[in-house]
Each structure stands twice: as structure tokens, then as C-alpha cells.
Amino acid sequence: MHDSDFDVAGRTAIVTGASQGIGRAIAETLATGGANVAICSRSMDRVGPVAEEINDADDADGQAIAVECNVRERDQVQRLVDETVAEFGDIDVLVNNAGGEFVAPFEEISANGWQTIVDLNLNSTVHCTQLAGEVMREGSGGIIVNLSSVNGQHAAPGESHYGASKAAIIRLTETLAVEWAEHGIRVNCVAPGLIQTPGVAETLGIDSEAMPPREATDRRIGHAEEIADVVRFLASPAASFMNGETITAKGVPRAGNSMSQDLGLED
Ligand SMILES: CCCCCCCCCCC/C=C/C(=O)SCCNC(=O)CCNC(=O)[C@H](O)C(C)(C)COP(=O)(O)OP(=O)(O)OC[C@H]1O[C@@H](n2cnc3c(N)ncnc32)[C@H](O)[C@@H]1OP(=O)(O)O
Ligand SMILES: NC(=O)C1=CN([C@@H]2O[C@H](COP(=O)(O)OP(=O)(O)OC[C@H]3O[C@@H](n4cnc5c(N)ncnc54)[C@H](OP(=O)(O)O)[C@@H]3O)[C@@H](O)[C@H]2O)C=CC1
Asked: Whole-prediction pTM value?
């Protein structure tokens, strides 16, 4: 008989952008599975309470530390890596989650606007992966999970900067999987469709109370925990033969509904 191994207990994971939304759900899910998590955001006031909540939770076996770190700044990422190793001794898993966007037509995006989004999504992933990857390569390997987006797979108007940065993350994932396999490092990616998070609620005005439950199979909006569960799978030994892949999680439309009807934005 084969006993599947979805276990992440005892591993140490860095999760970037974990003060809310998908990153927070990933950190909570990994900690519930027994992993120790080092979580960051730009504000200790925002990420500190998340670490406290994980440490106080009865159902989370893993411990959490919070680090104030703007992932666009390489020296701050180095500090995140150093503090994680000082606290937990190693880095087994890196989840490059921090990211974001604004929606604007290509011709209205300034040079600085373009740079901002590429720095936030792509260059931050490069900083974290190079610096945490150094620890993994010198140790016993590791697992890296990147957050792309369906916008990195398909075109959408107003998303040129975001889509380009998220598409690049998919190719970076594929390349690193090949380059770093010899170091015992697996690199995979998740491409979410629309997920209800504080960031998206703010942008789209989506009411989390009106969210369809996970049991609903015909929906275009997902829960942050549904992405966290995919990440947990990729971070576990069960995904041992997955390397360089991008898993899409985007649901399906309700028959006859427009996207905005699916999202409850119109009748
Ligand atoms: C097939 C399935 C169907 C489903 C289809 C749905 C697909 C789902 C897609 C979901 C997409 C979700 C994407 C997400 O990432 S969700 C995360 C949500 N959270 C956020 O995006 C964060 C919100 N945004 C921000 O916090 C900020 O905008 C940002 C971090 C991105 C930038 O902030 P920062 O303070 O660093 O930057 P500045 O404000 O100083 O601006 C820097 C330059 O950028 C220009 N800018 C900023 N906003 C805009 C804008 N709205 N339009 C144009 N330009 C903008 C700004 O002017 C600065 O440039 P200049 O100095 O030249 O002026
Ligand atoms: N929600 C969605 O529909 C989709 C999201 N994604 C991707 O998933 C990831 C998470 O999205 P989501 O949860 O919706 O985002 P949210 O805006 O809800 O949360 C973003 C998180 O990232 C942190 N963050 C933002 N900028 C930085 C930075 N420079 N350094 C460190 N932390 C930062 C924020 O913390 P703080 O403000 O405290 O710094 C916050 O914790 C992103 O990469 C996004 O592009 C992909 C597809 C769809």
C-alpha cells in the first residue's frame, strides 16, 4: 500500500506579503500543518499580529516570526533571510507571494509606474529567490513556490505591466527548476484566478459576506485558502515529481452568467 505524504511538519517556510489575503492564508495553512513560518510585510503593525495569532492558535503546531521587510529592497530581503535562519536554523520553503498592481492602459503607465509593478512582482521574486536560494543550495535543498496569476497566462486590458511581470515569473520558475534541480531545489508556481482578498475587495468592492462557499463548483471567485492548499501541496513531499510547473486555480463560470454576475457585481 502507498501512504501519501502531504506533510510539511517541522519545515521552515518564508512567506512574503503575509499580513493579509493569500499570503496570510498560506502562512496559517503551513503553520497548521506544523511548519515554522517567517512572515513579512512592509509594516510590523500589520504583520506582527498575524504572527501572534498563529503562535496563539491551538490548531497551529508551527511557530511564527514576523519581519518588517519591503521585498522590493534587496538589503531588507537579506535581513528577512538572516532573521529566519537565526530563529529557525534553515530555510526549507520559500513562498514568493507579495505582489500587486494598479489597472491602467499601457499608454498611461509612466516609466516609474512600470518600474514599480515590475519591482513589486518580478524583481522582489528575484531578490528573495537568490538570497533564500543561497541558503538552500548551501544546505540540503528546498522548495520554492512562486505566485503568478491568470493574467500572466492570458491577456487582459489594463494589465500590461502586471501581466508581463507575472508571465516572467512563470518562465523564471521553469528556468530555475532546470538550473537548481542538481541542488535539490524544486521550483513551482501557482496562477490564481480571481481570489477574494482585502486587496481585491478594495479594488473591486467585492463583499466577502457574499462569497459562494468552497463547495460551489460553478464560480469565478475563490477563497484565499484554496490557493493556500495548492501551495501546501507543492511544499510537501507529495509534489516530489513536480518541478517547473504552474498550477492554475481559477474555477469555472456559472452557465449563462457574465463575469460580473458571477462576482455579484450585477444581477
Ligand atoms: C480566466 C479567469 C477570469 C478571471 C479574471 C480575473 C483575473 C483575476 C485578476 C486578479 C488581479 C489581481 C491582482 C492582484 O495583484 S491582487 C492584489 C491586490 N492588491 C494590490 O494590487 C495592491 C494595491 N495597489 C497598491 O498598493 C499600489 O498601487 C502599488 C503597490 C501597486 C503601488 O504603490 P506605491 O506606493 O509603491 O507606488 P506609488 O503610488 O508611489 O506609484 C508609483 C508609480 O505608479 C503610478 N501609479 C500608481 N497607481 C496608478 C494608477 N492607478 N494608474 C496609473 N499610474 C499609477 C504612480 O503615478 C507612480 O508613477 P509616477 O511617479 O510616474 O507618477
Ligand atoms: N487576489 C487575486 O485575485 C489574485 C492575486 N494574485 C497574486 O497573489 C498575491 C497576493 O495577492 P492578494 O492576497 O490578493 O494581495 P493583497 O493586496 O490582499 O495582499 C498583499 C500582501 O502583500 C504585502 N505587500 C505588498 N507589497 C509588499 C512589499 N513591497 N513588500 C512586502 N510585502 C508587501 C501586503 O502587506 P503590507 O501592505 O502590510 O505591506 C499584503 O500582506 C500577489 O502576488 C497577487 O499578485 C494573483 C492572481 C489573483
From this structure: 0.97
